[in-house]
Write a structure and sequence with these properties.
15 helices, 7-stranded parallel beta sheet, 9-stranded mixed beta sheet, UDP-N-acetylmuramoyl-L-alanine:D-glutamate ligase, binds adenosine-5'-diphosphate, EC 4.2.1.136, binds ligand NPW, binds potassium ion, 35% helix
Length: 472
């Protein structure tokens, strides 16, 4: 058998592969280059006949693989096309296919996977053999992406992925995303005859010595998301900072110089958010426990983020007292609550179990954030970008959520609309200043524009829900 060093393109093709993808995707990739097709005619399948390719193009050679085969030489210049398996696989690659995966992965060739990086399962890869999954530089998906495409750890297999929907999925099989239609149905107009009281008084419990910034950014985001009145509860040392950075907010100073320590009365507040930059001091842990119990007793809507979650994780008996709260963990924070997880699929499922068990709403933050309801349903948020991978971005989200809860949006409305607008503001910032230089403050800066654009879309498409019950 020829070694492939003389071929520019090496194609590993399984006879079960959709033939329409062959002509639509693989042929154009080969173009006029010399190519060899290693054709695996799998048992019980009709033999795939590619003689028409050979006839059409003298540069294409087809080699049918029935048993052992001499592996081709794959160089840096070779283009490898992986057309072995799509997302239908239920068992890890084994035997010859596993050997092909290892061969490809140990090469420096450019790899394009069609349908899926062969070997990757569509959702749960817990039982997979990760060494037997082809690592592509590019993946051309022939149907809408399954859940696995939205998990960080699968990106080395997928490479840069794009969708060419040759075999579109049924609506019910699609990964659920929050849509713009959904959020414009949620967003409510401001009433002409309204006043600051109409839009709620929120309490932000945040900040400590050295972390005034987290509090400041959450506060600014609240103020730029329509809250009526905002009070910041923060340690004494940060008083001047907040009076200057957000003069619109009132500052209620803790008796402690450097951290949150006071037992608070939440009467009169429409919502409370706790956690950004709070620190982990013992006094703060005691004060937080009191705050959680107080909100539970009074039915005050509660949002818990950052160090609020980190402290909570040390007091599992309090999980029973956070019913109805919104939690906004990043992957490391959620694992403090649900235990270490081996992969994103397990983490998502344990987060869902946590939401169901303790009747909480969770925003599992990441490149694609999941919003999870206590009934176990979830949606992915479609907005946002990698420019938001910068300190303080999450604090901004907490501020937005506080503003929305204070304005009377339900938890479910709040998590969907809040994550959507947070990502949209990030997208507008990226558009204007670029992803490298943008900071969390840029997300805040573009929040008003994001709200404006979304409101205008709502007005245009659904009359801004003028006939639904508006705020309060
Ligand atoms: N200006 C201010 O005042 C600011 C104050 N802040 C306040 O700091 C406090 C501590 O919060 P925290 O989030 O920085 O620390 P922690 O919870 O230990 O975890 C962070 C580590 O987890 C990891 N990691 C892995 N994957 C990840 C992912 N997808 N998303 C996120 N993280 C991921 C990653 O580790 P690595 O991958 O680098 O090993 C990362 O370093 C909290 O109160 C917060 O409000 C900040 O908001 C910043 C601005
Ligand atoms: N690559 C990314 N793409 C989209 N959103 C991102 C990305 N990286 C981070 N984000 C968003 O930015 C926020 C980061 O939150 P978090 O980790 O709590 O930051 P911090 O604690 O510094 O405020 C989350 O809402 C997350 O979804
Ligand atoms: K494939």
């Amino acid at each position: 058998m020829n070694t492939s060093s003389t071929y520019n393109v090496v194609i590993f093709l399984n006879s079960t592969f959709y033939t329409n993808s062959l002509d639509q995707i693989i042929e154009p990739l080969i173009s006029n280059q010399s190519a060899i097709v290693y054709l695996f005619n799998i048992h019980n399948q009709e033999k795939l006949d590619l003689t028409h390719w050979e006839k059409k193009n003298n540069n294409i050679k087809v080699e049918e693989i029935t048993s052992q085969f001499v592996p081709p030489t794959l160089t840096e210049e070779t283009l490898v096309i992986d057309a072995l398996f799509g997302f239908e696989l239920q068992h890890p690659l084994s035997g010859g296919f596993a050997a092909v995966a290892r061969l490809i992965n140990s090469s420096k060739s450019t790899v394009v996977s069609i349908g899926a990086p062969s070997g990757l399962f569509p959702e749960d890869n817990t039982t997979n053999n990760l060494n037997h999954i082809i690592k592509a530089n590019y993946t051309i998906l022939t149907e809408e992406p399954p859940l696995a495409c939205y998990f960080d750890e699968n990106q080395p297999f997928l490479g840069q992925w794009n969708i060419l929907p040759i075999n579109p999925k049924k609506e019910e099989d699609l990964v659920p995303f929050t849509s713009e239609e959904e959020v414009i149905d949620i967003i409510k107009p401001r009433r002409r005859f309204s006043h600051k009281g109409t839009y709620g008084h929120g309490l932000l419990v945040a900040g400590s010595l050295g972390m005034a910034g987290a509090c400041s950014m959450a506060a600014s985001a609240s103020l730029k998301s329509g809250i009526g009145l905002l009070t910041i509860h923060t340690p004494l040392c940060n008083r001047a900072i907040h009076q200057v950075s957000t003069p619109e907010a009132m500052v209620d100073c803790d008796t402690n110089e450097i951290c949150f320590s006071q037992l608070l009365d939440t009467t009169g507040y429409k919502a409370v958010a706790v956690g950004p930059g709070l620190g982990l001091a013992e006094e703060s842990a005691t004060a937080l426990q009191h705050l959680i119990l107080q909100c539970d007793e009074l039915g005050t809507p509660l949002i818990i983020d950052a160090d609020g979650l980190n402290i909570l994780a040390n007091y599992p008996h309090l999980y029973r007292n956070i019913k109805g709260a919104i939690l906004t963990p990043h992957p490391v924070e959620i694992e403090r609550l649900i235990g270490k997880c081996n992969n994103s699929y397990i983490r998502l499922n344990r987060a869902i179990e946590f939401a169901k068990k303790f009747e909480v709403f969770i925003i599992l933050k990441d490149a694609y954030s999941f919003v999870i309801c206590p009934d176990g349903s979830y949606q992915l948020n479609p907005t946002g970008n990698e420019g938001m991978a910068t300190g303080g971005s999450g604090d901004v989200l907490t501020g937005i959520l506080l503003a929305l809860r204070a304005q009377g949006y339900s938890q479910e409305e709040c998590i969907k609309l809040g994550t959507y607008i947070h990502g949209k503001a990030g997208d507008l910032a990226a558009l204007e200043v670029g992803k490298i230089g943008m900071t969390a403050q840029d997300i805040i800066k573009y929040l008003p524009k994001a709200w404006k654009e979304l409101s205008e879309t709502a007005l245009k498409y659904n009359g801004f829900n003028l006939f639904s019950n508006s705020t309060n």
